[in-house]
Specification:
Blueprint: H1 3-25, H2 38-46, E1 48-52, H3 56-60, H4 81-90, E2 95-101, H5 130-140, E3 144-149, H6 164-176, E4 184-186, H7 204-214, E5 219-222, E6 228-229, E7 245-246, H8 260-265, E8 272-273, E9 276-281, H9 299-307, E10 314-319, H10 330-346, E11 354-358, E12 382-383, E13 391-410, E14 418-427, E15 432-439, E16 446-465, E17 470-477, E18 502-505, E19 523-526, E20 531-547, E21 557-565, E22 572-579, E23 590-610, E24 616-619, E25 621-625
C-alpha cells in the first residue's frame, strides 16, 4: 500500500473509532436497581385518590365489626355513588377504593360465596349492589375503580380451615371479573381468630395469582406490596427519606411485616420496587360516626398531609366515609373543596422559566440538557455521564422572584438514585450562595417547603447519588398563606365534671393526669396494675373511653377487661378479653358502648395485652360515656 493511501486509511480508521466512541456517549443511562412496572408508573402518576369505608360499621358506630351483625342494619336511605364520584372528581382525586368486604365479612355485593351480604339486607329489597353502582359512577366521572377485600372474615363458617383460602380466592375472582377494570387491589394483613379459635394461614400466592389472572395491571397493596406498601402509620405521612425500594424476603403482611420505621422510609438498596401509599382518614376513624361530624380534619392538616405524602414520593389515599344515608357528609365535602382550592392556588403559576445550565451534561449533548427540566415533558430529562454522581443545576430566573416551594422529579423508569441534595439561592445582599434547604431522596416527586425568599437565581446540588442522577422536572411556586380552621380541640370529658373523681389505683405520682383532659400528657403503668376510678357518686353510664398514646407501635392497650361496681370490692365484668379495634395501626380515642346503661360508682380497666407485648402500658385519658 502506498504511503499516502496508507495515511488516509489509518485516518479513516481513527475517524470511525472516534465516531463509535461518540455513539457510546449518547446511550441513555441503564436502569439502576429495581425499576417500576408500567402499571406502577401509571399508579404513581395518580398521586391522590379516595378511600371509602362503608358497611355495617357505618350503622353500628364501631371501627371493626365482629361478623355477628344482623344484615338488616345495612339500610342506607339515600345511597348515591354518583355523589361520591362527583365529589372525588371535583376534589382532584383520580380514583376510588372501596371496602367491598371488611373484617366482619359483610359483602357490599350479592356474593354467592357468603350469606352475609347486601342480598340479606333490606336495602333495595336485597337486590342492591354497591360495587356495581360505584364502578359505573367511576366510569361516568372518568375515575379509576379499586377494591379492598379483607382476607379476615369473622362471619364465614369456613374461616380458620384449609378450605377458606379457595373460598376467598373465589370471592376475589367474583369481584375482579364483574365490575370492569380494577386499578388497585387492597389487602389488609389483619388475621384474627375464627369461630373455633383458629387463625387462618393465608395463601398469599394464591390470592396474588387470582388478582393477576383477572386484573394483570392491578396494583396490589399490602405491608410488602408487591405493588405498593403501607407506610407504617395511618396518620398521613411517609418518611422525609423515602425509597420506593423494599426488602421483602422473609417478611409478610400483618404481624410478619417489616418494622414500621422501615415501611416508613423503605430500603436504600431494597431488592424490590414497592413504592409507598399513605392512607389516612379525613375523620379520626375510618367509618362514619355522628360524633365525629365536628372533627373533620382542617384545611391546614390536609395540606400538611399532602406535603408529607405526595410531596415525599408517596401516593395519598384519603378516606372519606359516607354517612348512614349513603352520602358523603357536607362537612367532609366542603373541607375537600377548601383543600382543593388551596392546592390550586399553591400550584397555579410555575416560576421556573429562565436560563438553566448544569455543571456537567451527559456526552455534552442537548439530548440530556438541563433545559429538559423545564419543558413539561415527563419523558425528557437531564443526566450526567455514568461515572459522574455529583453535579449542580443553576437556574437564572427571569428577574427577581418570590417563592416558597420547589418541586423535583426523578425519572423513575430508570430507577431511584439521589441520596442527598440541597438547594441554594443567590443572596443579593451578601453576594453569595445561601442554602435554602437540604433533603435526601427525591423519587417520583419531592416538594420542598420553606419560608418565602426573593432571588434571581437558584442552584440545586446533587451531593450524593447511587448512580448518575436522572432528573426530569424542576418547578417553582409561591404558595399563598391561608387561614384555616384548626379543627375543634377535642373536649375529652364533654358534659361531665371530673372534680369528684379520684384515681385510687394505681398509686402513682401524677396519676390524675389520666383524667385531667390534657391530651399532651400520658402515663406509663405496669400491666399487672389495674386502673380504678371512683366517680365520687353513683352515675348512669352507657360506655367508657380510652385514649392511647398517638404513636404507632407504642405499648398501648390492645386487649382488656372492664369492670363496674358500687364499691371497690365487688365487681361486675362487662367486657372480657375485649379488643380495642385497630389501635395497633390507628391509636385514636377508643369509645366502647355497653348493651344497656348501668348505674355505677367505680370503674376498673385491666390490661390483658399490649400492642407490643410490653410489661407496661400507656394511657393518655380514661373516662365514661353518659
Amino acid at each position: 500500500m502506498q504511503p499516502i493511501k496508507k495515511f488516509f486509511f489509518v485516518l479513516l480508521i481513527v475517524v470511525i473509532a472516534a465516531s463509535s466512541a461518540c455513539k457510546k456517549t449518547i446511550t441513555p443511562p441503564s436502569p439502576y436497581g429495581p425499576i417500576p412496572s408500567k402499571a406502577q408508573q401509571n399508579w404513581q402518576k395518580m398521586e391522590y385518590y379516595m378511600f371509602i369505608h362503608f358497611g355495617p360499621n357505618t350503622f353500628t358506630d364501631v371501627e371493626w365489626g365482629d361478623g355477628n351483625e344482623d344484615p338488616s342494619i345495612f339500610n342506607p336511605t339515600d345511597l348515591d355513588c354518583r355523589q361520591w364520584a362527583s365529589i372525588a372528581k371535583s376534589a382532584g382525586m383520580k380514583g376510588i377504593v372501596i371496602t367491598a368486604k371488611h373484617h366482619d365479612g359483610f359483602c357490599l355485593w350479592p356474593s354467592k360465596y357468603s350469606t352475609h351480604t347486601v342480598r340479606e339486607s333490606p336495602w333495595k329489597d336485597g337486590k342492591g349492589d354497591v360495587l356495581k353502582e360505584l364502578s359505573e359512577a367511576c366510569s361516568e366521572y372518568n375515575l379509576k375503580f379499586g377494591v379492598y377485600l379483607s382476607p379476615w372474615d369473622q362471619n364465614h363458617p369456613s374461616y380458620g380451615t384449609p378450605e377458606y383460602n379457595q373460598i376467598f380466592a373465589n370471592t376475589l375472582e367474583e369481584v375482579l371479573t364483574n365490575y370492569g377494570s380494577v386499578f388497585e387491589q387492597w389487602f389488609d394483613g389483619a388475621n384474627g381468630e375464627g369461630s373455633e379459635g383458629k387463625k387462618q394461614v393465608y395463601d398469599w400466592n394464591l390470592f396474588h395469582q387470582t388478582v393477576y389472572r383477572h386484573q394483570p395491571q392491578a396494583i396490589i397493596f399490602s405491608d410488602i406490596g408487591p405493588g405498593c406498601r403501607w407506610v407504617g402509620n395511618e396518620e398521613g405521612h411517609v418518611g422525609e427519606t423515602n425509597w420506593s425500594r423494599l426488602n421483602i424476603s422473609g417478611f409478610g403482611p400483618g404481624i410478619d411485616a417489616p418494622p414500621s420505621d422501615t415501611l416508613n422510609k423503605g430500603n436504600i438498596y431494597g431488592e424490590n420496587w414497592v413504592p409507598a401509599e399513605v392512607n389516612t382518614s379525613i375523620r379520626p376513624g375510618w367509618f362514619f360516626s355522628p360524633s365525629s361530624n365536628d372533627k373533620v380534619k382542617s384545611v391546614e392538616q390536609l395540606v400538611n398531609i399532602y406535603y408529607t405524602s405526595v410531596g415525599r414520593n408517596g401516593n395519598l389515599l384519603l378516606n372519606v366515609p359516607p354517612d348512614r344515608r349513603g352520602r358523603i357528609h357536607p362537612n367532609d365535602s366542603t373541607r375537600l373543596m377548601e383543600f382543593k382550592r388551596v392546592l390550586d392556588q399553591s400550584f397555579h403559576q410555575n416560576l421556573s422559566a429562565g436560563n438553566i445550565v448544569a455543571s456537567t451534561v451527559r456526552g455534552k449533548l442537548d439530548q440530556y440538557s438541563p433545559q429538559n427540566l423545564l419543558d413539561g415533558n415527563y419523558d425528557t430529562y437531564w443526566t450526567t455521564d455514568d461515572k459522574v454522581k455529583t453535579a449542580s443545576i443553576e437556574l437564572d430566573l427571569t428577574g427577581i422572584q418570590k417563592f416558597n416551594r420547589i418541586l423535583l422529579q426523578e425519572y423513575i423508569p430508570l430507577g431511584q438514585r439521589v441520596v442527598a441534595f440541597n438547594v441554594e439561592y443567590w443572596n443579593q445582599n451578601r453576594q453569595e450562595w445561601s442554602v435554602i434547604t437540604e433533603a435526601s431522596t427525591i423519587g417520583y416527586k419531592r416538594i420542598l417547603c420553606f419560608p418565602s425568599i426573593e432571588t434571581s437565581k437558584i442552584r440545586i446540588n446533587i451531593k450524593e447519588s447511587l448512580a448518575c442522577p436522572v432528573i426530569n422536572t424542576l418547578e417553582i411556586y409561591n404558595a399563598p398563606d391561608f387561614s384555616s380552621e384548626q379543627g375543634n380541640k377535642e373536649k375529652v370529658h364533654e358534659g361531665l365534671s371530673v372534680e369528684k373523681w379520684t384515681v385510687i389505683s394505681p398509686v402513682q405520682e401524677d396519676i390524675k393526669q389520666i383524667i385531667d383532659g390534657n391530651l399532651d400528657t400520658y402515663l406509663t403503668i405496669p400491666k399487672n396494675q389495674a386502673v380504678v376510678i371512683d366517680l365520687g357518686e353513683e352515675t348512669i353510664i352507657k360506655g367508657f373511653f380510652y385514649i392511647p398514646l398517638k404513636i404507632v407501635g407504642e405499648a398501648n392497650i390492645l386487649r382488656y377487661n372492664f369492670y363496674v361496681g358500687q364499691d371497690n370490692k365487688t365487681w361486675r365484668l362487662l367486657k372480657s378479653n375485649a379488643l380495642f379495634h385497630n389501635v395497633r395501626n390507628n391509636p385514636i380515642r377508643q369509645d366502647v358502648g355497653f348493651e344497656n346503661t348501668t348505674k355505677v360508682r367505680f370503674i376498673k380497666l385491666q390490661t390483658v395485652e399490649t400492642v407490643d407485648n410490653n410489661e407496661n402500658f400507656q394511657i393518655v385519658e380514661l373516662g365514661i360515656i353518659k
